[in-house]
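This section describes the prediction task in plain terms. A model, or a person checking by hand, is given the sequence of a single protein chain and must write out its three-dimensional structure as a string of tokens. No templates, partner chains or ligands are provided. The sample shown here is typical of the held-out split.
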Amino acid sequence: MMSKPTKFITIDVGNGWTKGFVLEISKEDNLRLLISKKTSLPTSVGDLNLTVNQILDSLDAKRDNDTALVITSSLENAKSLAEKLGANFALSEVAKEHFLVWLDGKASLSQGTILDAGATSFSASYEASEVGKFILHKTTAVEIENYFGNKKIRPHKIAQSPNEVDLEEAFFRLAASRKTLNFATKGSKSIVLTGAIFSYTPKLTRTALIILDTLQSGVTTQVLIDTELFLDGFGALLAAHPSLDKMNCDFLQNLGGFVSLGGSGTLKLDYGFSQVQEISVNQEEIAIVPAKSDQLVEVSIDGTKEAEKVWGGSFGILIDGRVKPLNLSFGNEESRQKITSWYNSLEKTEFI
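The expected answer:
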């Protein structure tokens, strides 16, 4: 009888980048997986074998009976490559489904939605004027179109300058809006963010504002971020080894509970104590109520029938009183000043 593996290698072959991880079961906690090594390389789409073997060499992980190899990808030839290497394989979509099933087992994190800012996101097309209304720096429609035209050709290219980051964050506001448009009616309780622009952000406040900007009125949700770009790799691991479904792995950071009022309003926060806290938020105000990641809070928006339960987090409970959709326009100085003031408002909360 073959022994169960105690070490795992996962390789996520993306359109732009390939990520490799080595995981081991913790000696102190046999229900926790630890990432012991990780590496990444631009994907050689024409020769996946080259990229995957370079990843394996870089990880320098010994393959034996105690080590399992799992590969995930949406690219052609990835499955045949996995078979050649004796690895388990899961399509990226299947990996995400298994991740969401795992997340569904976590308290108050059921019915999740994944917002993936990976390279495939750039295949979508948006009007330059729609992207431009969220951009802080002065630019033109032609410059916007050229940037994202080049991004489709070179999806592995990472935003380097503040202006490039600004462009990509504006783009993903629109991508996220498509996902969250019917968020409330679909009954989703949590949003998980993954992809370089989210996972490697130098300022969480910028990511928080992207999500607040896209949430429709009346939505309360939990927001988590994949800090290691490991979501697909972990999902593929669960698909290949279902017995790991009770495992924990520390690659998700809880940003907190996000509440979009869509204007001025009042809500009640029940921490499970004798007193229920009542908060009033003015129109156009973004307010924060401190709450730790292990604090479960029941949120009731005035005028709604059902309360929603969310955990605190890096931003505690974040309450947005801005009218949705946001009244912004491309090339308008007043719009840029509004966005700047929202950033500044959120940055005051970073100490929490």
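For orientation: The chain has a mean pLDDT of 89.
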